[in-house]
Amino acid sequence: MLSDKTIQIIKEITPAVAAHADTITCKFYQRMFAGNPEVKAFFNQAHQQSGQQPAALAGAVCAYFSNIDNLSALGPAVELIAQKHCSLGVKAEHYPIVGKHLLDAIKDVMGDAATDEIIEAVGEAYGVLADVCIGRESEIYDGLESQPGGWNGQRDFVVDRKVSESDIVTSFYLKPADGGPLPTFLPGQYITVHIDHPTTPTSPRNYSLSDRPGLDHFRISVKRETAAMAGTPDGLISNHLHDNVNVGDTIALGPPCGEFTINTAEQTGKPLVFIAGGIGVTPLLSMAKSVAAANLTTPIFFLQAARNSSVHAMAEEVRGLADGITPVVTRVIYDEPLEGDVTSGKCDEVGLITKDLIAEQTPVAEADYYFCGPKLFMATIEVILNELGVDASRQHCEFFGPKQALVTV
């Protein structure tokens, strides 16, 4: 527990820390990578270069300080961090490294304003949060390793199949190289791909499992990221997977992790709405296929947005959800359809997912909503759901990359 004195000091310095949070976190990463380069392998350097990771950390620090006297409010954030750390293999011994460089960064940026008393209070606050995270991560590690087929760290998998899903998405079917069993996982979780890239030192990448649990393989469906699409350099690992990883090749994987999940055993018949934008379909398809495979009576509504048929991935699988006992309604929306996309029935709507479309096509008053896609797409969906009166407890979304607040549009 934090002392009353520490709580008071943290409350007093929160505005100043918030004002300098971005500078502090950038300085923190610079110091840590220089002083302890061994931890660099845990971080996606593309997120460092884009500023996403420092911005996400700045938000997390401010959220922690703002809730210093109400730590229970941080439960979801702690779970997200713990799951991510376990996917990467972060251990308790790494926390002192982070703490040292964070305190040094605060001193660097705030100068004389960071008195010994303040640094001591921040150190105490960091220690409490570290203990909470370490405790939760220990539970996750134990759970991962104790289940049949489970593991921690890395395990070799062989590419059993490689399937083109669209012009820009390829699926990789992966089986254990040791011939052993696969662990179960919760639909929506991801695995971590460790690639020893031939030209550029890199870091692990998280990819959602795009198929349901209980099969003889893991499947990831990877979008080829290009500078023209993202406004950033070509995706180093996504392009390497597309171009250089083939059937028979071996890839090291971290175990299934992640907090954006659905548990089919807990479904009570309440309608489920999945809203996918682009490659955001991957965790949502795993969820929907799991519900359908369980032959539940839970109604499913699946809205999938794509530019057109050339980049529309998993089309047949989404439409195939309606083939079983579970009642399923699917709608495909293209915003830039190709010639013939509409007349051939490849899409049901032309345009964007709008408030009217969601209101007309989904049971707004009672459904749980799961959505995933580009940040602007998710921000738009969040605004729409809020305007329709969907309570926050019925809204669930997934970020690909460091967790950030959705910016309203």
Automatic annotation (TrEMBL):
Site residues (Involved in heme-bound ligand stabilization and O-O bond activation), renumbered to this chain: Y29
Residues holding NADP(+): G278, I279, G280, V281, T282, P283
Domain of life, per lineage: Bacteria
GO BP, one annotated term: nitric oxide catabolic process
Gene Ontology terms for molecular function: FAD binding; heme binding; metal ion binding; nitric oxide dioxygenase NAD(P)H activity; oxygen binding; oxygen carrier activity
Domain Globin: 1-138
Amino acids binding heme b: H85
Enzyme Commission (EC) number: 1.14.12.17
Database matches in InterPro entries: Cbr1-like_FAD-bd_dom, FAD-bd_FR_type, FNR_nucleotide-bd, Globin, Globin-like_sf, Globin/Proto, Hmp, OxRdtase_FAD/NAD-bd
Cofactor: how bound: Binds 1 heme b (iron(II)-protoporphyrin IX) group per subunit.
Binding site for FAD: Y190, R205, N206, Y207, S208, F399, F400, G401, P402
Entries under Pfam families matching the protein: FAD_binding_6, Globin, NAD_binding_1
Annotated PROSITE patterns: FAD_FR, GLOBIN
Residues flagged as site, Influences the redox potential of the prosthetic heme and FAD groups: K84, E398
Cofactor(s) of this protein: heme b; FAD
Region: Reductase, residue numbers: 149-409
Catalytic activity line of the entry: 2 nitric oxide + NADH + 2 O2 = 2 nitrate + NAD(+) + H(+); 2 nitric oxide + NADPH + 2 O2 = 2 nitrate + NADP(+) + H(+)
Domain FAD-binding FR-type, residue spans: 152-263
Residue positions of the active site: Y95, E137
Keywords annotated in UniProt: FAD, Flavoprotein, Heme, Iron, Metal-binding, NAD, NADP, Oxidoreductase, Oxygen transport, Transport
Family per record: In the C-terminal section; belongs to the flavoprotein pyridine nucleotide cytochrome reductase family. Belongs to the globin family. Two-domain flavohemoproteins subfamily.
Free-text comment on this protein's domains from its UniProt entry: Consists of two distinct domains; an N-terminal heme-containing oxygen-binding domain and a C-terminal reductase domain with binding sites for FAD and NAD(P)H.
Protein name: Flavohemoprotein
